[in-house]
Every structure is written in structure tokens, then in C-alpha cells.
């Protein structure tokens, strides 16, 4: 009995203090089953003694010990879960603040540069100047304090991913309002413009591709791996449902309270914006084969136009007035399209970070990249002017479509350098050119046997800018760095060329 009580006591002490899994017992004279012993007995927690009446106590203590372990495990897991939830919430809040600050700085820089250039009556694109400034700062920091350049890149990374994720949306407003832009253009002129867009895209692609191949054969530079480019996260079901809720609530509210937000334009802004975003999300989730026919950009435009049509019908306002609310071009009373196009300047500023990240690639393949981009840009501008004159297209319309192969943000800046142009037509033609390239660029590259990723990337970006780049890079990631570089440089060289009065005058002379 004495031994049983002593062992039970030791097990109890061991169970409540797990730091000592074994409790040494020294018993000089202990009788176990009638045998005298004077040894040190080390009793573990798993020991089960069945002596006399100790069986019940052992089973009870074993159950109690296991229960204690389970309770401790549950407490540990609970504490870990609570800590993980708190940590995740904190990270999400910090990430959101990081995005807002970095994106806000880029947008503020674009805004103040525009105001400064307007005040100084400078016609050169302000965003392009800002891009050169950012790129220069990064290069200087990289050569003097590399860690500072890396820190600056990391700070603006959330903003760059945001711009990359939503980039196609910034082109959509011109396509949404296309019915208003072309309603005064004669059908014959519309057919001529369509022929110039399709034929010009193919011709520019061939010129850029063959130039890149010729220069590459001459310099014989070996390929190296490009810097990895981060990809934005896919759209979640929560985002889809959130924008769906905004669309429904704001649509109904605008019907019953047309001036709830001060003006009809502002009241219609939420549901027109939501319809555009939802169209992009739905279009992005379509199968790849279906995207060849129904590109996400087309889904955006159709979604916004159908929503405007539905609201115009239900409210008795009509389709065109509601569509006019989409893009007002008035900073005091902006529509959904004005909000989206307000990001175009930030797209140009983001080129500085992309070019800096791929600076080693640009330096190594400078001959192929710069030669191909310059040749293709000059060819695109002057061939458009010449074909427009040959087919008898009106001068104002020809000048409006000159920058058809240059990204929207810079194309609008280029046509603003000329008088009597139609910026809405310019933007629409640029988007349509990108859509043509997005749908047919891979087939064309394969048909003309462009195998080199450098040639494929440069030819795609030079002829179909951002939309073509997105389509090609989705299936050929190795061509993406060259697409990104050519995409930015094409607009840069086009803007610089058209900023020179002699070049502008020569283009007008070709147009006639």
C-alpha cells in the first residue's frame, strides 16, 4: 500500500509538471510483493502499476494526464489561430495602406506635372517627362546607393501591380463611347479607317520583326534570362460579388434619385463604373478559345454599353445621353470613363520602373531593341499619313489616326500637338488596333516564321502596344520583357518625334 501511494504521488507530480517526465524515487527499504529493495526507481508517466488497490488510481491518473495534454494542445492551437488571424488582418491593413500611399504618390506626381506643363504652355507630354525623371533617379541611385534604388522599387511595387492588373480598363472608355465618336463620320471614311488599321497593323508588325531579326543576325548577341516580372493576383469571387452589389444598388438608386450625388453624371458614375469592372472580370475568366472572339476589353465595352442602354430605356433618358455621362472630359463633373482614363498618366510613369528593372536586358540587346522600335515607329507614322492620302481620307481624320500603334496615354498627347483632330477617334482606333493584334498576333508571327523571342516581342508591342503584349505574354512569357520594353519605347519615340515642329510639318505635308 505504501509503495502504491508513493508511485501514485510521483505520477501526479509528473503530470502537473511536464518539465520533469521522470521523477526519481529513493527508497532505502521498500517492500514490493514481499521483496526488500534499496534502489532508485525511475517511474515514467506511461508506467502502469497494478499492485493491490492501485489499479483504479493508475487508470484515473492516466485519464487525467491525457485530458491535461489535450487541454494544453487545444489552448495552444486556439492561441495560434487567434494570433494568425490578428497577424493576417494586420498584414492586410498594412498592404492596403502601402498600396494607397504608393499609388497616391504616382497619381499626385502625374497631376502636378500636368498642371505645371499647362501653366508653362509646354506641349511635350508631362507624364513622359516624369518617366524620364524617375528613370534617371533610379539609375543614379543604383550607381551610388544600390540599396536605396531597391528600396524605392519595393516601395512602389504595390502600385505597379495595381496598374498592371487593371491596365486594360484604362483603355476602355474610348471604346465604350465609340458610338458617339463615329456617329458623324461617313460610312465610306469608316471603311477606309478600318482598312488602314488592319493593314497598317500587319505592315508594322512585319517591319519591326524583320528589322529585329536583321540586327540580331548582325550583332549576334546571345540571349540571357530576363528579370522575373511579378504577376498580379487573379480576381476573387468576393470582388465579383462586391462590384455586383455596387452595380445593383447604385442602378436602382439612380432611377429613384437621379441627382442624389449632386448631378446626374455623378449619380450614374457608380453603376457605369461597376458594369465596366464586372465586364472585365467576366471576360478575364472566359476560356482562352472564347477570348479569341470575345476579348476582355470587348466584354468591358459591351457590359458598359448594355448597362447604359438599360438605364436609358428604364429612365426614359435614352441611350446617347446616358452614354454621354460616361465620359464628360470635365474635371468638375467626371464620369466613370474620366475616372478610368485618369490613370493613363500613371501608366506612363510606371514605364520608368519597368525599364529600370530590365535595364541589363536593354543594355545587352540595345541594338536590336532601339533600332527596331525607331524604324517601326517612323514607318507607322509616315505610312499612315501616306495611305490616308492615297485612299482619299479626310485630313483631320488621317491626322487623328496617325498614332494608331502607340499606347492610348501617349497617343492622345501626340494628337493634341496637331490642330483639328478628334481625340475620341484616336483613342478608339488605338484600342481597335490593339484588339486586332491581341486576336491575330500569334498566328501572324507563326505564319511569317518569327521564332526569336526578341523579334516576336518587339514586333508585337510595336504594332499592337499593350493589348497585343498582354495576349502574347500570356502564352509566351519569355517574350514579355521585350514586349514591355518596346511597348514603352514605341510611345516614347513617337512622342519625341511628334514634339519636333519639323517632323510634325513633314507629316502634315504627307497627309496633304
From TrEMBL:
Say yes or no: keyword Membrane present: yes
* Membrane topology annotation: Multi-pass membrane protein
Keyword Membrane: yes or no?
yes
Q: Which keywords does this chain's UniProt record carry?
A: Membrane, Transmembrane, Transmembrane helix
User: Listed GO cellular component terms?
Assistant: membrane
Q: Which InterPro entries match?
A: CidB/LrgB (IPR007300)
Could you tell me where this protein is found in the cell?
Answer: Membrane
List the transmembrane segments. Answer: 93-109, 115-141, 187-215, 236-257, 263-282, 294-315, 335-356, 368-391, 397-418, 425-445
Please report the name of this protein according to its UniProt entry. Answer: Plastidal glycolate/glycerate translocator 1, chloroplastic
Amino acid at each position: 500500500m505504501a509503495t502504491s501511494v508513493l508511485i501514485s504521488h510521483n505520477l501526479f507530480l509528473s503530470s502537473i509538471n511536464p518539465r520533469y517526465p521522470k521523477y526519481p524515487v529513493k527508497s532505502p527499504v521498500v517492500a514490493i510483493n514481499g521483496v526488500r529493495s534499496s534502489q532508485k526507481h525511475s517511474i515514467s508517466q506511461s508506467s502502469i502499476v497494478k499492485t493491490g488497490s492501485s489499479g483504479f488510481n493508475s487508470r484515473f491518473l492516466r485519464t487525467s494526464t491525457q485530458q491535461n495534454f489535450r487541454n494544453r494542445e487545444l489552448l495552444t492551437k486556439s492561441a495560434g489561430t487567434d494570433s494568425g488571424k490578428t497577424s493576417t488582418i494586420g498584414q492586410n491593413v498594412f498592404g492596403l495602406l502601402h498600396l494607397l500611399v504608393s499609388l497616391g504618390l504616382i497619381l499626385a506626381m502625374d497631376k502636378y506635372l500636368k498642371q505645371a506643363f499647362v501653366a508653362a504652355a509646354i506641349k511635350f507630354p508631362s507624364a513622359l517627362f516624369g518617366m524620364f525623371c524617375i528613370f534617371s533617379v533610379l539609375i543614379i541611385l543604383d550607381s551610388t546607393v544600390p540599396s536605396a534604388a531597391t528600396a524605392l522599387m519595393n516601395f512602389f511595387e504595390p502600385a505597379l501591380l495595381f496598374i498592371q492588373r487593371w491596365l486594360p480598363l484604362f483603355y476602355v472608355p474610348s471604346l465604350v463611347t465609340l458610338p458617339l465618336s463615329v456617329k458623324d463620320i461617313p460610312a465610306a471614311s469608316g471603311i477606309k479607317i478600318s482598312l488602314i488599321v488592319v493593314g497598317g497593323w500587319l505592315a508594322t508588325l512585319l517591319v519591326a520583326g524583320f528589322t529585329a531579326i536583321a540586327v540580331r543576325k548582325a550583332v549576334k548577341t546571345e540571349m540571357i534570362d530576363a528579370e522575373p516580372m511579378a504577376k498580379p493576383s487573379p480576381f476573387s469571387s468576393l470582388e465579383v460579388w462586391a462590384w455586383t452589389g455596387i452595380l445593383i444598388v447604385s442602378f436602382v438608386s439612380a432611377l429613384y434619385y437621379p441627382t442624389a450625388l449632386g448631378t446626374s453624371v455623378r449619380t450614374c458614375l457608380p453603376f457605369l463604373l461597376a458594369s465596366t469592372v464586372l465586364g472585365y472580370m467576366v471576360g478575364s475568366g472566359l476560356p482562352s478559345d472564347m477570348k479569341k472572339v470575345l476579348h476582355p476589353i470587348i466584354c468591358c465595352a459591351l457590359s458598359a454599353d448594355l448597362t447604359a442602354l438599360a438605364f436609358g430605356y428604364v429612365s426614359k433618358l435614352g441611350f446617347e445621353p446616358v452614354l454621354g455621362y460616361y465620359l464628360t472630359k470635365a474635371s468638375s463633373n467626371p464620369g466613370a470613363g474620366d475616372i478610368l482614363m485618369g490613370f493613363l498618366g500613371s501608366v506612363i510613369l510606371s514605364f520608368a520602373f519597368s525599364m529600370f528593372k530590365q535595364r541589363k536586358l536593354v543594355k545587352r540587346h540595345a541594338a536590336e531593341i532601339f533600332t527596331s522600335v525607331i524604324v517601326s515607329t517612323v514607318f507607322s507614322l509616315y505610312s499612315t499619313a501616306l495611305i490616308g492620302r492615297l485612299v482619299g481620307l479626310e485630313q483631320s481624320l488621317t491626322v487623328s489616326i496617325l498614332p494608331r500603334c502607340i499606347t492610348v496615354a501617349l497617343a492622345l498627347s501626340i494628337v493634341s500637338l496637331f490642330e483639328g483632330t478628334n481625340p475620341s477617334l484616336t483613342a478608339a482606333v488605338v484600342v481597335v488596333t490593339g484588339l486586332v493584334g491581341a486576336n491575330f498576333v500569334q498566328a501572324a508571327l507563326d505564319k511569317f516564321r518569327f521564332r526569336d523571342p526578341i523579334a516576336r516581342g518587339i514586333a508585337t508591342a510595336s504594332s499592337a502596344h499593350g493589348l497585343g503584349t498582354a495576349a502574347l505574354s500570356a502564352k509566351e512569357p519569355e517574350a514579355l520583357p521585350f514586349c514591355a520594353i518596346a511597348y514603352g519605347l514605341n510611345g516614347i519615340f513617337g512622342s519625341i518625334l511628334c514634339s519636333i515642329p519639323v517632323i510634325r510639318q513633314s507629316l502634315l505635308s504627307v497627309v496633304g
